[in-house]
Amino acid sequence: MELTDEAVYDIAAAFAAFVGEKTGKSCEQLRISVGHDSRISADRIAAAVLKALSACGVHALYFDLASTPAMFMSTVELGVDGAIQITASHHPYYRNGLKFFTREGGAEGSDIVNILNAADAKAYDDTKCGEVENYDFMPRYAEILRDTIKKGVNAADYEHPLKGKKIIVDAGNGVGGFYAGDVLAPLGADVSGSLFLEPDGMFPNHIPNPENEEAMRCICKATVDNHADLGIIFDTDVDRGGAVDAGGEELNKNNLLAIAAYIAAGGKKGVTIVTDSITSDGFKEFIESDMGCHHYRFIRGYKNVINEAIRLNKEGIDTPLAGETAGHIAFRENFFLDDGAYLITKIVIEMMLLDKQGKTLNSLIENMKQPVEAAELRMDILEPDFKVYGQGVIDALEAYAAAHEDWVLAPDSREGVRVNFKDADCDGWFVLRLSVHDPVLPLNVESNVAGGVKNIVKRIYTAVKDFDKLELSAFKKYID
């Protein structure tokens, strides 16, 4: 939808009513914090949000520029009843959106539907007069991260545990620049050579996204050129982070998840690590064989894996981490919040502890099997009822796999269909799943042999080529 001032006003007012109903308070009793990332439309949207909250009688705390995780933390540190972050995460500069938090965490999909329905019906009372208070919360949030590092490293020079280390940050002109100047530098780290720390909503240098190839090339090169011990990259609103080792190699996707799992487990055997469906076989083997823990694949989407981890804990299953390969990684000890800055903070602590032993972050995952090849392809669905049609394709592919001995259905697939191949010319796996929102079937493929991905894609193409509502040109191009 288009975020006109009127639409933003209605949505913010409906959120106030939602929080009031959830807490049992009148809107005049509510305190709601509001922040935004660096996008060019942020000020306009923030003005409409604050106007709505004030008209509903809410006491609004306006943080101005802030990270998404900091907005949730304001419910913990300041005790506000709700929080609104204005961000579109890693999406282009011309997009924007609203993220909602209560003290229980991020709003669920069903909550969003209810808020939007209430906004459409104008089911709120905006005849009141609330207060807007300017509040600078980011210094307190940075202090929390600094204290976490100081306690975790417990160096002889307690106030400067990172002295002697060079760590550079690429914020991509998003919100994450604070991490260099307000977290790392006060702890003694040399952050010279850091990139694009100044907020700029046009993102003139590269997309702030750890999954973006150009962005990752940039931080890898900068890490090597500056002889840094660690490179760090954040997405726009800092709910995701990525890292680069001293040699310029990415610590991303499966590798980042594996390091986070190692840290979260803390040497404890038998705990469960929840991830999305497309983690590699090498990752699973690392979790189960090397760490002695349980790997639980679940439906892609950070809220999905987080909610499943929370559910498992409630059932008595020790689950300290939930994460997906896109970089959303949440620690139980941090309220299961997908916080890129907290993730990087834990990695920095681990780097310093390993340094005392003469080891590096890479030493944690040196035995983890890496694929020789990997690819992600997409099948567009040309049918209006794309979810039904897409599920039909998945069901047909699963039936096809069951009928062929060389196609081995994975026993722990909880999303789409996952198939393993042991043949010498494939030696790999694929996952085909339905996109949550778009008329697309994403396909992830990995192989342990050169040419294996193409051979797997050929087999999949043979199985699905007769579906006339699938756009398979990407498959044909890849095979050819």
Write the layout of secondary structure elements.
Blueprint: H1 5-23, E1 31-36, H2 42-55, E2 59-65, H3 68-77, E3 82-86, E4 98-102, E5 105-106, H4 109-120, E6 132-134, H5 138-153, E7 167-170, H6 178-184, H7 213-225, E8 230-234, E9 241-245, E10 250-251, H8 253-265, E11 272-275, H9 281-290, E12 294-297, H10 302-314, E13 321-323, E14 329-331, E15 337-338, H11 340-356, E16 373-381, H12 386-402, E17 408-409, E18 417-421, E19 428-432, E20 440-447, H13 452-464, E21 470-471, H14 473-479
Parallel strand pairs: 1-2, 1-3, 2-6, 7-8, 11-12, 11-13
Antiparallel strand pairs: 3-4, 4-5, 8-9, 9-10, 13-14, 14-15, 16-20, 16-21, 17-18, 18-19, 19-20
Helix pairs in contact: 1-2, 1-4, 5-6, 5-11, 13-14
* Structural class computed from helices and strand pairing: alpha/beta
**Oligomer classification:** single chain
How much is the average pLDDT?
A: 96
The CATH class of the largest domain is Alpha Beta
The CATH superfamily title of the largest domain = Alpha-D-Glucose-1,6-Bisphosphate, subunit A, domain 3
How many domains make up the 3D coordinates? Answer: 4
The CATH architecture of the largest domain comes to 3-Layer(aba) Sandwich
Report Rg: 23 Å
Characterize the main sheet. 6 strands, mixed
**How many helix segments?**
14
Please state roughly what percent of the residues sit in beta strands, choosing from under 5%, 5-15%, 15-25%, 25-35%, 35-45% or over 45%: 15-25%
